[in-house]
Design a protein that fits this description.
Number of domains: 2
Number of helices: 6
Helix content: 25-40%
Length: about 200
């Protein structure tokens, strides 16, 4: 359970029902705790994400595969998402004096924690978490594109990766100028004003 989710349930005194992911992580810890071998981790998939247009922040999250052996030597693994989590929002009831009382969970929204920077890739590589099998994706909110090389993923602009995913090649300087311009010029036709 994410620490902020735990704080929400501690503060509201609502009952937390363990998720399947929580149960899998506990089972993995229990199974590998008696093993004499150290668990290994590798980033299986990593995502760059942008939603809300070109001025929005770019975020990153990844799935980490943690593997180890149980006490009998059997291979076991669990996947863990890092950089995003599902945050509940409280539903309130108000008494006659307008005092709020939390009565349940109204909805759940996805929260992102890692604002994108190439330094994230550097740190993951320094820890030995990036491998040849790591899959790199970009997601612009409505569509996802992938299987970029690690170096492309680290160094290319987000919009360039989306264009590469859509067309199979990087945008030309002219295409980049159009994409960077005001929305009225993006289709190549400026909006006419006046009669």
């Amino acid at each position: 359970m994410h620490p902020k989710v735990k704080a929400f349930y501690d503060e509201t005194k609502l009952e937390y029902l363990e998720s399947v992911q929580d149960k899998l992580e506990k089972q993995f810890e229990k199974m590998t705790s008696l093993s004499r071998q150290e668990n290994k981790a590798v980033v299986e998939k990593i995502y760059r994400f942008k939603q809300g247009g070109t001025k929005s922040h770019e975020y990153c999250w990844y799935t980490l595969k943690i593997s180890g052996k149980d006490r009998k030597g059997n291979y076991v693994s669990v996947d863990k998402t890092v950089g995003k989590y599902e945050m509940p929002r409280a539903q309130y009831n108000f008494d006659d004096e307008a005092n709020p009382e939390v009565i349940g969970v109204n909805d759940i929204r996805t929260e992102y924690e890692l604002q994108w920077s190439p330094k994230i890739m550097d740190e993951l590589e320094e820890k030995g978490l990036i491998s040849d099998a790591t899959q790199c994706y970009v997601n612009n909110g409505s569509r996802g594109y992938g299987q970029f090389f690690v170096e492309q993923f680290r160094t290319a602009d987000f919009e360039d990766l989306v264009h590469l995913g859509q067309t199979g090649h990087y945008p030309t300087p002219e295409q980049k100028a159009i994409l960077a311009g005001p929305p009225s010029t993006r289709m190549g036709q400026p909006v006419k004003s006046g009669p």
